[in-house]
Amino acid sequence: MKKIILLIISAVILVGCSWNKQPQLSHTIEFIEDTTISYNKKMDSSKLIISVDNISINRNNIEGNKLYISNFYVTCPNIPETLGQHHLIYKIGNERYGLDIEVKDLESPVIQLKKSNYLLEIGQELKLSQVQYSVTDNYSNQNKIKIELNKSSNHYVLKATDESGNHSSQKILVKFKEEPVKKAPKKTIDKKDEVKKTQKSKKTSTVKPVSKIFTVKQYKTLKECEKKCIAYIERCNYSGTARAVPIMKDGIYVGYKAIFN
Predict the structure, then answer these.
(1) 3-state secondary structure of 83
(2) What's the Cα-to-Cα distance from 223 to each of 191, 196, 228, rounded to whole Å?
(3) pLDDT of the chain along its 261 residues, tens only?
(4) How far is CA 35 from the centre of its chain?
(5) How many CB atoms are located within 10 Å of the residue 142 CB?
(6) How far is CA 111 from CA 125, 158, 161, in A?
(7) Are 45 and 31 in contact (CB under 8 A)?
(8) What are the percentages of helix, strand and coil residues in the chain, rounded to 5?
């Protein structure tokens, strides 16, 4: 009876060992060390193989999902188009070779500016709705991309951030419209009536007085120049016509001139 029990135990141990024994693979596939893959629409699992049976990969020996090596080929799996960790199965005949990978979105959005310079009114702010641009991303849909317009000292920055946190930016320049220079209205003053009002009992002279110029450089303001010019005309007591005429230099009023006719 003891012999029977020992035989049964021995048989169980032998069967158990055969169950735990891993199948021997007849080939060796060497994969790349970094198995983090940047997501794109053309991910190719054959590019993850360095060699098969110590034979380096020849890209010319790939047809579809089959990588030909000597007298056999490796069937390469499709890489799932979803982010995260995946287990890929490569096949040589009935043999299966596994590889763990991680697909990540590592690419930043691409911003195309249709216009990079804007002319604004003084004090006006550039708004996002005014910016002409388009943005694309390798993974995120356009409505999932965060768009920001940030103001800097003398320009704006358009920033796009995708769902994975990748971001890119474009610089936008702005200029402000110059305020038109307000010129003093051209003013011709006939001082004949003014002189009559201020004349009292002074005697008038028929001798034409000397014309005289009153400049901003002398009297600081155009208004003060006009006052000085009128005062000079009144002091002359000229019986003829006298005028205080504004004078201009390079398009800018610089003073008044007393003219006698």
Answers:
(1) coil
(2) 16, 22, 9
(3) 444 343 334 444 444 444 444 567 899 999 999 999 999 888 999 999 999 999 999 999 999 999 999 899 999 999 999 999 999 999 999 999 999 999 999 999 999 999 999 999 988 999 999 999 999 999 999 999 999 999 988 899 999 999 999 999 999 999 988 876 666 666 555 555 555 555 544 566 678 888 899 998 899 888 999 999 999 988 888 888 889 999 888 778 889 999 988
(4) 33
(5) 12
(6) 21, 9, 10
(7) no
(8) 25, 40, 40
d(CA 31, CA 46): 10
Polymer length of the chain: 261
Please give, one letter per residue, the 3-state secondary structure of 53-65: CCEECCHHHEECC
The Cα–Cα gap between 133 and 137 comes to 14
Q: What is the DSSP letter of 220?
A: S
State in Å, rounded, how far the first CA of the chain is from the last one. Answer: 155
| Cβ-based neighbours of 11, under 8 Å, separated by 6 or more | none
List, in order, residues 6 or more apart from 43 with CB less than 8 Å away. Answer: 37, 79, 81, 103
What whole-number distance in Å separates Cα of residue 36 and Cα of residue 38? 7
Token pair recorded at residue 10: 């021995």
Q: What is the pTM of this model?
A: 0.55
